[in-house]
């Protein structure tokens, strides 16, 4: 019997028992859909963090000198206590980094802590806006583009001018159709003039990168008091220059902090890769749970396939007897039922892939979660389905092949 005929026969058997075939496939469909959908969402989130968030936080071709690492959320309590004893990054430290990296495209100093405050313009108020204080170079490091006005300048920094640039969300919600440039806003009781509006940078997982107010570092200190620490952001002209510049900045910081050769750094020098690694370490927990859930669903689906195939063997004993009587060999019968099991599992896998794909697209359209279906997850799902068909179809196929022709034909007479 040709392979094409075997597959066509399997498809006819599945079509003849539609409802039974559907319930047979349900476990595999749900498991495969879960695998494809969850992997698509996780991969989409990883790609978004890699392509957008890391650059928005640290900057492109850039690194930061920080008091604590970005991935502090995964550090145990003892290590966290050690981090809290680290000295602050001072302006003198920042000056040492500036001297160590003279070939930088831009260097910015960001003050900390960055409080949240209400922003008031006339009778309108926008609550819980993040307030940042930085030197002008920070705007270059962060790749800020301005949709209106101009950035903060060195003159603004030296003259302690009460000026700010605002994010796109602040401009839209507070000023609506009014041009914000030149308008006065109130922050913590002080008045500041808006000199620029930063173009929209976007959102991730519902968190906006456009709801902020940035002012000169000197004005920021006057508003909130003495800085606890600073973050030094360095942007290089090319990606290949980042690693050597990080090494020079690290050496300058060790000298500034008077660390001995064997002493560990009491600061962190990081790129956006650290944020990516932090995020991927979080999503790896989900990846660890996925196989267990999928295996349970596939196991249930495989057992159902085996039971249905055993039922089919009992129902088709007369057919098996006739085929053997006209010359069919044991391997022909075994192959027929094994192919039917594999075809069932593959149909369930393809249906699950489509369901997972559509589910991921639906989640991406109605929520801030991005989704990106990957070829490896689809291939894994299809291979998983075929494997289930083979594994759980062997016993029913072997049982059908062992039936004696006379016994099989007598079963339905």
In short:
With 413 residues, the chain is an alpha+beta fold. The chain has helices at 3-16, 18-57, 77-84, 91-100, 137-141, 154-158, 168-175, 217-224, 242-256, 272-315, 317-325, 330-366, 375-402, 405-410, and strands at residues 62-66, 106-112, 116-121, 124-134, 146-149, 163-166, 184-187, 190-198, 203-204, 207-208, 212-216, 229-235, 268-271. Strand 7 and strand 8 (190-198) form a beta hairpin.
Give your account of this protein's structure.
The chain has helices at residues 3-16, 18-57, 77-84, 91-100, 137-141, 154-158, 168-175, 217-224, 242-256, 272-315, 317-325, 330-366, 375-402, 405-410; strands at residues 62-66, 106-112, 116-121, 124-134, 146-149, 163-166, 184-187, 190-198, 203-204, 207-208, 212-216, 229-235, 268-271. With 413 residues, it is an alpha+beta fold. The strands form three sheets. The protein has a six-stranded mixed beta barrel. The chain has a four-stranded antiparallel β-sheet with strand order 2-12-1-13. It has a two-stranded antiparallel sheet with strand order 9-10. The longest helix has 44 residues, at 272-315. The two termini are 26 Å apart. The model has no long low-confidence stretch (mean pLDDT 80).
